User: Fold this.
Amino acid sequence: GGSGSPFSGAVRSDDTLYISGMLGMVNGQLPEDPADEARAMLDRIQATLEQAGLTMDDLVYVTVYTTDLSLYGVFNEVYRSYFTGPFPARAFIGAGSLLNGARFEMQSIASLE
Assistant:
């Protein structure tokens, strides 16, 4: 039951952590600057990983959805700063629209090995 959304923020299966699509909302609002939105989204993913004892470098695959493919460079500049090791495999996909008018949504898979 419950009135919340019908999904889990993260699910562990064996040695894999699957993280639901996350948006870059700050106090329920989207930042005006796309870079700030990307940063807020990545901060949420990082916090979810940390709760499982992981870091961004434990991500093995991510899918990024965007409503504006021209923000590819802006997104990459922010994204790059969250990793110290090899980057995860990634897809960057144009989407017609995202929930709450978001410009970015990212779903992630991390390895606990």
